[in-house]
Amino acid sequence: MNTLAIETKDLKKTYDGKIYAVDGIDLQVEKNTVLALLGPNGAGKTTTISMLVTLITPSSGQAKILGYDLTKDSKNIRKKIGVTFQEMAIDDQLTGQQVLEIHGKLYGMKGSELKSAVDEIFDLIELQEVRNKKVKSYSGGMKRRLELGRALLTKPEILFLDEPTLGVDVQTRAKIWDYIIKLKKEYGMTIILTTHYMDEAQSLADKVEIIDHGKIITQGTVEELIESLGSDIIKLEISGDSASLVKKLKALDFVDQVTSHDGWIQVGVDNSDTRVVPLIQSVIQQGYSISNLNIKKPSLGEVFFKYTGRELRE
Amino acid sequence: MLANGIYTLWKKHMIKMQSAEVSGFVIQPILWLVLFGVGMASLVTTSGTGEYIGFMAPGIIALSALGGATAGGAVWQTERLRGMVREYLVAPIPKLSILGGNVASTVTKGLIQGIIIFVVSLLMGATLSNNPINLIGGLAAALLFTIGFSGIALAFASLTDSPGGFHTMILLLNLPLLFASNALYPIKILPTWLQIVAYANPTTYAISGIRDLVYKTSTFPGSDIALWIDFVVLFAFAILGLLFSQYAFKKSLP
Predict the structure, then answer these.
(1) The whole model's pTM is what?
(2) Closest alpha carbon to A215 in A49, A36, A22
(3) pLDDT per residue as tens digits for the range A241-258
(4) Alpha-carbon torsion (A67, A70, A76, A82), positive or negative
(5) Are A280 and A179 found together in one domain?
(6) Which chain B positions have a beta carbon within 8 Å of A75's beta carbon?
(7) What is this model's ipTM?
(8) Which residues in chain B are contacts of A90 at CB distance < 8 A?
């Protein structure tokens, strides 16, 4: 049995034949896992999702969703996926109840099947009390939850969430995280989410694909990616050309990896408590001065910095 | 799935239809009937206001169908610009049903407005034809015209991303369609150049059909266009409107 929910090969989307929004993406997503596409704005995350949910057609490459070919079998794919969009696409002139009912009917649901599914969703997203109120009276967080509920109504096998917590308050964010964890555990759902929040990817994802400029620059489980950096991270700001310093630091036996960008050097070490002094000494011995220093437990943020040379900010 | 998609979207738009949407667009045609109709009637006939109202009502029904089509086009444009259309695009319904649902709801709005004007015209003393089959024929003419115009309104709403631009385009059509037709005066009294324009205007055929079938006037001449010609032109207009909307709709998708 095929255990892959999604498989893509060299998936590309170009505009006007020259601008690569997505530049050859290979994905393999196991069923019942959560995959996070992590990257800054404009990295190609939304374009990738838009192709996978059949909203836009790829320029080249192949993709299979639940065994169906993305371009030939889009109708079968649509029946089995649920989607929430980055910019909310909910009609605020309708009531919450109407939003869900209309959505269900578009998927051919009706009668008692539709009624019980709608009831179940309002329980899950905890909006029972406002289900008959117009959506325009909902707060931003309530709208997000309704949109998530709408995507879940048809019990999709794969759920695509494009920036599910963008612009919501802390409580809503925590709730949405809880739902995602529950959906995976209790419903066995496969979930693909895009985010530019590292903590979100770190808390939810079994696997992370870091995307920048339309390409996957690295991928793995959160643990794998973080382990690749060493157990602790020391970041130093130095002046002058750092190339020769990086070489010297790499030769030190307690250093796991070194990257440098824009005057900052990121050094992965086995233990920052015992290594920070020898490290500083080595830098000064090479004739460099340190203007800034910080020590961190590694997170996806450092992974992102290592591969792109940029901080991933909100 | 095509029928289900069309029906679901039609129903959604009917739920969303607010009283303001209908009344806002129907006020102008009612004012035409009440203010212009009454004033003009006293100038052109001595046999009572109802006579001229009966003559003029088909044109105003056409005008109000245009208002309904505009309302439908505006809804489609809003759904498109605010990204709601993506919900439909990832649903397992044919893309054509998205357009179909919009055409159905837009036509419904146009017909509702036309019927309101029809009722107002009766209240103002217009005389109806005695034959109920004629009324059905009149409704068919109004339906075909409304389909054609809904197609144009939906096409404009697909092609322009500015709500202001959309309304301006529709407004630009509004008055010329009324004046350059047989809506307010018999075509024969017009100068030749305006007659040519009027004959090229599909509104003329809708008015001609409705006038001949629905209303009875003794002092005003009936239309000089044969009924079958009215229906052939209106049918072609409906098809062309739909094709135009389909072309523009496809262009507007991501």
Answers:
(1) 0.85
(2) A22
(3) 788 888 888 888 888 888
(4) positive
(5) no
(6) 92
(7) 0.87
(8) 84
